[in-house]
Amino acid sequence: MTNATNSPEVYSGSRFRKSAYSLIWTILGIFILLSGFGCSHDHKINLNPEVFVPVSNIGKGERLVVRANDIRPQKAISKKKSDLKVTSDRSINTVTIYASSDVSDTVSEKIMEGFERMGFHPTKHGNNSSPMIIVEIKKLQLNYQQGKMGIKIPEIHAAMETIIRVRASRGVHSFKNIYSTRMTKSHRMLTGEFKNERLINNSLSMAIQKVFDDPELLRFLVPAKS
Length: 226
Fold this sequence. Notes:
By secondary structure, this protein is of the alpha/beta class. It has one domain (35-221): Double Stranded RNA Binding Domain (2-Layer Sandwich). The chain has helices at residues 2-34, 103-117, 192-212, 215-221; strands spanning 43-45, 63-70, 78-81, 85-87, 90-91, 94-99, 121-123, 132-146, 156-170, 173-187. The chain has a 5-stranded mixed β-sheet with strand order 7-2-8-9-10, covered by helices on one side. The chain has a 3-stranded mixed β-sheet with strand order 1-6-3, with helices on one face. Strand 9 and strand 10 (173-187) form a beta hairpin. The longest helix is centred in the N-terminal third of the chain and has 33 residues, at 2-34. It starts with a helix and ends in a 5-residue tail after the last helix. The model is unreliable at 1-11, 30-38 and 84-88 (pLDDT under 50).
């Protein structure tokens, strides 16, 4: 009699715990989807790329006109849509990420800092006789893609791509090149604003760094004297 009455209670408790755990994971999964892959609201990130340029006298104090233009057709760095739909073609929310400052001003500042460390005298103003470098921001794009759904916490893939084009001129001579980076990060957790900001800045930093590491560009700006 004792075993017969106690057995159903043990079984019932086990089922209750399993149901509770299942409910917790279900709620967590819904929260992740509602959060739009990590953030559920529009936000701005602080654009602060870092470049590492050793101090030198490559430029020998030569005046260098530096300009930067943001030629991106879409100024938003990212637009993310939730998987949950209000209708068949309308998401519950769309999250848009922008830079908190002017992108061209930020890039121009970093380019000028780098060339100044190389011994140039960078300036925003000059005439056609001065060597000039124009940096165009063609792409600064962060895209999200959902990975495997067979697990309790879905996998999130964040792909960040930066493309900048440099056009340099010296008298009648010209130089062109494109510098790009593509970074992909996978998460099994919420991405969040901080991780977005770090990924965007890392990608932009690497693209700008390639400008200073390009020996052909430096040879063009400071041609060897015969």
